[in-house]
Amino acid sequence: MITSCGELVFPTVTKSNLLMRNIFLIALLAVVCVACEKKQTAETPVNSLTLNPVTLQLKVGDIATIDAGNATNVEWTSSNTEVAEVYYGAVTAKAIGKAEITARSGNVSATANVFVTGTDGASLRISPPVVTLRPKETFDFSYGNTFDLPLTWTSADPTIATIDQNGHLTAVAPGNTTITLSTNIESVTAIVAVEHTWGEYRLVWADEFDGAALDESVWGYNIGGSGWGNNEKQYYTSRPENIRVQNGMLEIEARKEQYDNNDYTSARIMSKGKKTFTYGRIESRIKFPGGGGTWPAFWMMGNSGNWPNCGEIDIIEHIGNQDRRASFAVHTVLKNGTRGNNWAKTQWFDYALSESFHVYGIEWAEQEKDGKDVIRFTVDGVQYAEVWEEQIDNNDSWPFNKPFFIIFNLAVGGNMGGQIDDSIFNTPRIMYVDWVRVYQRDEK
């Protein structure tokens, strides 16, 4: 210590001062040693880097961790972040495919392979699942091959579409075929629909009902009163009181009268075995009778087999108790009215359908929607509903690729007809059919 006069004065050394000095020196030495250790660790390069595991097999959505051992300051990267992302060693599987995860510390690195399968465990993918082309058009599938195994592409029907070993597709002719991408352990498929090219619709058959009697070379009668599977209350006859052709119309009249233990009579005709059609535009101009309990219909059934295996197309069903309602439906062996699961659509109009004539029809098209059959329901040329093959849960049950016949009938009561208002029979209850026409188109 220096005094004000410049005299150097040494402080008195005590045991207490000496102890404090030693403690300070020890603490300082500890801090210096720790700092030296950290500096040495940070600057000393890692001689080797080992990852564990080096192979990961994950499903989409899985998360797993890769361990880099004692390495510090590790930088993680993924060769394909669309397949797998990595964050401090945590790998997230995002899509089917393969990615290489790299860990780098200083000048050394190590890699691990990540193989991502689908949630169902599939390692192959093909996209899209359905391709629609015109003849001579080409298309390249997108595909993923997780395990880098040799691939084989095949077409179930090369006369419809061919495919090379790079997934390059060529449409040849109209129709459907299945494309298969396979390895020696699994396979995936896609559907190729090569569109038919059609000409314009042309009239192929019609009954204008211009004669004096029903053309029995085309039409036959259903006779009976057993309820017809729908608890209907009428007895169907072939009497002129119930069915006739006059004034350019087919007239089907429902009457309240005792007949063969039934309280009502009416008629039903069909073209079964006489006039059948597969595909086309089928239309009829009809005026419904209206009134509580009436249930007229214009519909079709398959020409072979029993219901429901044969199939049923309800082009239009009208419910007199709901005069503004039009109902469209189809029935198959797996989806039908008995099971209560048939396909059906209802359209409500802002006018009563029984007030005037309307044209009811279907456009029944072959392999038109992604290579599948489709049936569109129309009223006065406007489409109100559509059903197609994919909406039926088993395509093997789709019966609408075979000949169907036409039916006209006027039921009374029953499951859809509902409550009967007997007062409606104070005036005639007649279903008027002006004409029925079938249009088809030729393939170009």
Protein architecture, described:
The protein is mainly β and 444 residues long. The chain is 7% helix and 46% strand. The protein contains two helices and 34 strands. It has helices at residues 15-43, 414-417, and strands spanning 55-59, 63-65, 75-78, 84-87, 90-93, 97-105, 108-117, 124-127, 130-133, 138-140, 142-145, 152-155, 161-163, 168-171, 175-182, 187-194, 202-207, 220-221, 234-236, 243-246, 249-259, 262-266, 268-270, 276-277, 280-287, 294-302, 312-319, 322-331, 343-348, 358-369, 372-379, 382-388, 404-412, 429-440. The strands form seven sheets. Strands 17, 19, 20, 21, 22, 25, 30, 31, 32 and 34 form a ten-stranded mixed β-sheet that branches. A hairpin with a 2-residue loop joins strand 21 and strand 22 (262-266). The longest helix is centred in the N-terminal third of the chain and has 29 residues, at 15-43. It is elongated, with a radius of gyration of 41 Å. The termini are far apart. The model is unreliable at 1-16 and 18-44 (pLDDT under 50).
